[in-house]
């Protein structure tokens, strides 16, 4: 998929309940510069049925996803009720470094865990997945790393994936986005005149780190007992919902 950055499927992973079916669940960055050949492949080879977009209204308005005939588009703004994104370019301070980047990202993950709107968004995501009985779904945000990474962790947990496998999938983003991130950093260095310390902080913001997702697990444990409790109580995903997801996406 030359036009899709950070694109991969979750299929083939063995879990406590079975193996995730191939050609059912895909994650990626935004579906903006997707050529005709890639669109044909998504339809022909992957039987794409639904796109779930976790970006906010501004992101969608500036760079709308490609429209694909016969494919349902579902917009779920995961951070709609979180007022300020401290990691956006507009809010980056002059003293940006790796420490500040990590602190900002950990705050974002904690905020998403606690925010009722974010929890409702992920609830709606699981319910939408349960409506797709055949074909595949792509879920994404801008870079396919944070909002999408959390979405993947939630789905994989319900499907019975081991935590190590969840983190392995999560950290794969750093390899998948390396080339795209380098282009962004080159542009920022020219346009904003960032020094080496600021650029390393920016590189961190464009990446994922184990501590970010661990912050979510820790916050979920504090409030709900564990990550499964966050899904069950925080997202209001019933055992019936979970069983349906497993029946649709496992073999």
Strand order of the largest sheet: 1-4-7-5-6
Structural class based on helices, strands and sheet pairing: alpha/beta
Instruction: Report the β-strand fraction as a percent range.
Output: 5-15%
The helix count comes to: 12
Query: Overall pLDDT, averaged?
Result: 93
Low-confidence stretches: none
Blueprint (SSEs and pairs):
Elements: E1 8-9, E2 14-15, E3 18-19, E4 25-28, H1 36-44, E5 48-53, H2 57-62, E6 72-75, H3 98-114, H4 116-129, E7 136-140, H5 147-158, H6 163-171, H7 173-176, H8 178-192, H9 196-205, H10 210-224, H11 227-234, H12 239-249
Parallel strand pairs: 4-7, 5-6, 5-7
Antiparallel strand pairs: 1-4, 2-3
Question: Keywords, please?
Answer:
251 residues, alpha/beta, two-stranded antiparallel ribbon, 12 helices, 7 strands
Description:
This protein has 251 residues and is α/β, with parallel strands linked by helices. Strands 1-4-7-5-6 form a 5-stranded mixed sheet. A two-stranded antiparallel ribbon has the order 2-3. Strand 2 and strand 3 form a beta hairpin. Helix 3 packs parallel to helix 10 and helix 5 runs antiparallel to helix 6. The model has no long low-confidence stretch (mean pLDDT 93).
